[in-house]
Amino acid sequence: MDTPRNRGRTSPVQLASLVVGAVFLLVGVLGFIPGVTSDYGDLRFAGHHSDALLLGVFQVSILHNIVHLLFGVAGILLARTWAGARNFLIGGGVIYLLLWLYGMVIDRDSAANFVPVNVADNWLHFVLGVGMIALGFLLTRGRVPTARKH
Known about the structure:
By secondary structure, this protein is mostly helical. The relative contact order is 0.17. It has one domain (12-138). It has 4 helices and 3 strands. The longest helix is centred in the middle third of the chain and has 24 residues, at 82-105. The chain crosses the membrane at residues 12-33, 53-78, 85-103, 123-140. This is DUF4383 domain-containing protein. Keywords: Membrane, Transmembrane, Transmembrane helix.
């Protein structure tokens, strides 16, 4: 609720969106740093032929890194409002669960693996999806923001 006492304060859901967005932004940047990303010379724009591994574990491509960067920017920008932060966490979580399902059903050696994803990515996407949705709901349960009067 927006009152004179809490006006200008960041709500827990906004802080969560900001932190999650910042982590995605950091991961997107790290995906372009040789050493942090092993086999950096094998980094491709997209597809399963990109053999670069973030932290030696998570398969990445230029497209995958760009998606992380864009997701990070979205989380940070949407953290400016309670509703935006909630929508980012819940909507983003749904997107990550869909990406997890996609990664589970595709043939990882086919052109369908354009992101690309490996087993580690798939399970990270599952954890991210569940975690983001949980944060979005748990940090906003029982609270409905009131519209600000200008």
